[in-house]
Amino acid sequence: MNYTFSRLEQVAVDGNVEEWENHLNALEDLWSFGVAERNNVLFVAIVIKDIQLQREALSGGIFVNISYNDKRKDGARLYFPYWDRERKKALSASEELRQTENFEQALLEKVNGYYLQGFGRVRDGLLALDNDYGIRATTLVDSNKNLVYEARIPLELVGLKSDVVAVQVGVRTQYAMMKKAMESSNRPTNRGYGYGYPVMGGPSLKNPYKAETEIWIVDKVEKSN
User: Residue 63 pairs with which residues in a beta bridge?
Assistant: First the structure.
């Protein structure tokens, strides 16, 4: 299916997705997503219902990947929520946190910030939640026990090369990361036979979910720099 941007008049990145009503694309009973663009700013909304997928989102994070044109490739990537290795280790060892009634929300309040890669005008690495670039995202557990995500990304930070762009949104699941690692290891190289070539009869991966957890949206933006 070909997805396009939603046309919204106003969007507030506050974890309340009422303005996205009738604009979210539902994938089975797993999750819903929507992407909009206004005044050269990209907005993303995601609602995750499935408990296992929620756990993977809390573990691996949710990502937005903005290709520089209409080609579906890695471009500017925003990962959130994000915990660095030391923070994850400390949280895993915290008995007090585990005993918290609303564990997921308590965990979300301890994120390190955003993790960025591939932005033309922002360096790779950790970015503070309160920043001067206009990047904002929020994740919370709503009253229906859904994991809700919203984000805004100024497209001037990306350095688009075309008015038509491809945007990928999804959850960094174990399946997706293992699939990407296998595809990378099976990619032919110039190092000669045997290294970097597909191994016949190797292990196969099966998506544990009944719908895709990563989706591409291709559409035209109002303005690109």
Answer: 79, 170
- For residue 56, give the amino acid letter: E
pLDDT of 63 > 70? The answer is yes
85-101 residue pLDDT tens = 776 666 566 666 566 65
DSSP 111-167: --EEEEES-SSS-SEEE-SS-SS--EEEEEE-TTS-EEEEEEEEGGGTT-SSSEEEE
Q: CA gyration radius for the chain?
A: 18
- Residues paired with residue 149 on neighbouring β-strands, in sequence order: 46, 139
Per-residue pLDDT at 181: 84
Peptide bond preceding 203 in cis form (omega within 30 of 0): no
- Residue 223 CB neighbours (<10 A): 11
**Residues 43, 55: Cα–Cα separation, whole Å:** 23
Closest listed residue to residue 139, CA positions, set 21, 4, 17, 10: 17
Q: Where are the beta strands (DSSP E) in 72-123?
A: 76-82, 113-117
Classify burial at 49, counting beta carbons within 10 Å of its beta carbon; exposed 0-12, middle 13-18, buried 19 or more. Answer: middle
The encoded tokens of residue 193 equal 């036979």
| Mean pLDDT of all residues in 31-56 | 95
- pTM comes to 0.85
Q: Which of 158, 128, 214 is nearest to 41 (CA)?
A: 158
